[in-house]
Design goal:
With 159 residues, the protein is an alpha+beta fold. The protein has 3 helices and 6 strands. The chain has a 6-stranded antiparallel sheet with strand order 1-2-6-3-4-5. α2 (128-135) crosses α3. The relative contact order is 0.17.
Length: 159
């Protein structure tokens, strides 16, 4: 039964990836850098297509050398005429400076391949459990214990 649940979850995730065009169709906002628009703990739904990235869009991007994607607003787009590539500059709405300090050393712009998706919707505060589990290992262990006990109770109950 447990294997079936995990397989179903994987199939749903892969299906979402296909439908949204994003390698990560859902992300949790991990900081207050996008307040007041998005709060820490909000879940964002992402979509990615071939349309050009535009100023004002909320994007999720990866930075070379970092594991956790970042949710910020596009503040400047520079289209190169010679190569047709696009340079993108981002900033958190609640931050004073642009994100060049967050990018990889020596990197001044993001390119299209850094963008994971565009925010298309959100669910307020629904990601707090994820944050609690990553920031506080004791919470993670408690929920694993509760989940295991719940599974044992269901598995051993007589019908």
């Amino acid at each position: 039964m447990e294997g079936m649940i995990l397989t179903s979850a994987l199939i749903i995730w892969k299906g979402l990836m296909l439908v949204t065009g994003s390698e990560s169709p859902v992300v949790v906002v991990l900081s207050g850098s996008m307040e007041p628009g998005f709060q820490k703990g909000d879940i964002l739904f992402l979509h990615m297509n071939k349309d050009p990235i535009r100023t004002g869009e909320i994007v999720v991007f990866n930075v070379d050398g970092r594991d956790i994607p970042i949710v910020h607003c596009v503040i400047k787009v520079h289209e190169r005429q010679d190569t047709a590539e696009v340079d993108i500059l981002t900033k958190g709405d609640n931050n004073l400076d642009d994100d060049r300090g967050l990018y990889a050393q020596g990197q001044l712009w993001l390119q299209q391949h850094h963008i994971v998706g565009r925010a298309t919707g959100y669910l307020p505060y629904a990601g707090w459990l994820t944050i609690a589990m990553t920031e506080k290992p004791v919470v993670k262990n408690k929920y694993l214990l509760i989940g295991a006990l719940g599974f044992l109770a269901v598995a051993t109950s007589k019908e």
